[in-house]
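This part of the workshop introduces the protein records we will be handling. To make this concrete, we reproduce a full record directly below.
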Amino acid sequence: MTTNDQSITEKGLGGKVITGHMVINPNIPEEAKWYVIHTYSGHEARVAETLRQRVTTLNQTDKVFELLIPTQDKIQIKHGKKSTIKEKIFPGYILARMIVDDNSWLVVRTTQGITGFVGFGGKPTPLSDVEVEAIKQFIQIGAPKFKTNFSVSEAVKITDGPFTDFLGSIESIDEEHGKLRVLVSIFGRETPVELDFLQVKKI
């Protein structure tokens, strides 16, 4: 996403900088509501930028005010290293704060990559205030969670610590703290051992 005065990263939703939040027009009237737009998964940012350009070019900035791709920080373990990534909460969806009329509906609906609005009876249905608040809270959760490809009962090999090279099976996963409880056979008995995600690898 290109950097400009209407960047896809803006201060918003409580003053916090949120990746995927684009303010097109900060003068937002009370009647503007949040709507859910369906798009192709994996192309949300590009579609949002295309929509922003069309809204500006077709003079709909008095109807479409904000675009949001809800994301949350996750710590990813890959090749034995930790990295923080932005994971989309709703892959394949963009939120738009707008006033829906024939013109604004047409601009959104005919933007490349958008397949339609989410709604009932073929009509866009706005999110309730409760739903919007829940999404805001979810985005702003402070502690990043771990993103892992491990699963319960999966066989793993321990790569670090006193049980290096032992084999075991995953009993439980604590994604919030990046921990695993692994059952290791010690003296013929299965013993639970708590390990960091970085201390094991899949077999």
